[in-house]
Design brief:
This protein is α/β, with parallel strands linked by helices. It is globular. It has a six-stranded parallel beta sheet with strand order 2-1-3-4-5-6, sandwiched between helices. α2 (37-45) links the parallel β1 and β2 (49-53). The chain has a single domain (21-225), classed as Alpha/Beta hydrolase fold, catalytic domain (Rossmann fold). It is 39% helix and 15% strand. The longest helix is centred in the first third of the chain and has 18 residues, at 2-19. It has helices at 2-19, 37-45, 62-73, 90-101, 121-127, 132-140, 172-177, 188-191, 213-225; strands spanning 22-26, 49-53, 83-88, 107-113, 160-166, 198-202. It contains nine helices and six strands; from the N terminus they run αβαβαβαβααβααβα.
Length: 232
């Protein structure tokens, strides 16, 4: 009798685990999984299977990073109903590239924080500096607005996409050369993408937006409801 009860409990527990939605988190260029730790903790408390995937952002091209990182991260989501993505900066470009080449049958929603969807003039400004390629790597050279940029070659969003742009800067030098409102690295206009579901701007900076409690609240709201809070 006890064995039967144990089997039933295990079966129910397995179904509960299998019913969870998975959220893959991807950090930006020259960042690490540590930067997405707070988001990961909140998503886990909310009942999601949070996969905070660390990848060598300065070691390869966007194409190779996307295929390797997302391909491996998806292995952790095999037993879940849906797969969502939350990305910061270049992480969003990796998702865009991957989804332009692959189909995720159980794809849920995608939230991008400060993505350079139309390239970043900041990357343009840095590219002529000695040593930039060594610091930013092959992928960093693909994030500008010029001929090497991959951002305008991937295409529009054909999935549920919410984008959060920042409007505060801790880099006044770069902000001086960026047109319009920006977060110190990416302009608000550059974050926008044809086909996006929703877009909001918040008074946060590029390096720290993923740790902001109000941003995290909006991330959760979009994943759960497919839109951002309008009264936030």
């Amino acid at each position: 009798m006890i064995n039967i009860i144990v089997v039933i409990i295990l079966a129910v527990f397995s179904q509960t685990v299998a019913a969870k939605d998975c959220v893959i988190l991807l950090h930006g260029l020259a960042k690490s999984d540590r930067d997405m730790k707070k988001l990961t903790q909140v998503l886990t408390r909310e009942g999601f299977l949070a996969v905070n995937y660390d990848y060598p952002s300065r070691k390869d091209s966007v194409e190779n990073l996307a295929n390797n990182a997302i391909g491996l991260a998806l292995e952790s989501c095999k037993q879940t109903d849906k797969v969502h993505f939350v990305t910061h900066s270049m992480g969003g470009i990796l998702v865009r590239y991957y989804l332009s080449e692959h189909v995720i049958e159980n794809l849920g929603r995608v939230v991008m924080l400060g993505p350079p969807n139309n390239g970043s003039e900041a990357a343009d400004a840095y590219q002529d500096f000695p040593g930039f390629s060594a610091i930013a790597g092959p992928a960093g050279l693909q994030l500008g607005t010029g001929d090497m940029s991959i951002t305008n070659k991937i295409g529009s969003a054909k999935f549920e996409l919410g984008i959060i742009a920042g409007t505060r800067s801790v880099n006044l030098v770069l902000s001086a050369i960026l047109p319009g409102k920006d977060d110190g690295k990416v302009t608000v206009e550059s974050t926008k993408l044809a086909g996006m579901t929703d877009h909001i701007s918040m008074p946060v900076t590029h390096p720290f937006m993923m740790k902001n409690s109000k941003v995290i609240d909006q991330v959760l709201h979009f994943i759960k409801h497919g839109q951002f809070k309008v009264d936030a």
